[in-house]
Amino acid sequence: MANTGVIVSGAILLGIAILGFLYPINDMGWSVPQAHELCSSGLGQLGQAFSGDIQKICLEFRYITYGIYGLGLIGIILVIVGVVITHKSKEKTLTCAYCNFVAMSETELLKHSSDKHLDKSPYKCGHCDFIGITEEILWNHYNDEHPNEKKW
Asked: Residue 70 — pLDDT band, cuts 50, 70, 90?
């Protein structure tokens, strides 16, 4: 299952970056990357050499352009991560209480416990040699095998 929260966050950042590329910033219809490109051209370099105001504006355009590139890159990364990495916080980890075994299902964990750790189980019948893996199994044993005897 894909992590939709991460995908949506990435898509939002990517959308903001696209708007930053397309949205005009002045009356002539220039976008931020176009203004940065003009500042990087020979004419822009010449203008910066003679005017401190142009140099300051071009520096601001450069930082804004880097911010747009960064937002777009982070947005793409978040979308990829959201698709590749699944959302595991809701999944229950089934780990053996006696060793580091991790089971994919409760049935697999019960089978492992009965195969490897039955002697360590606290659920032992007080009337015979039966050992249960869970308290529920022990209660079922008492009800089936010793219905008229004291449980504990």
From this structure: very high
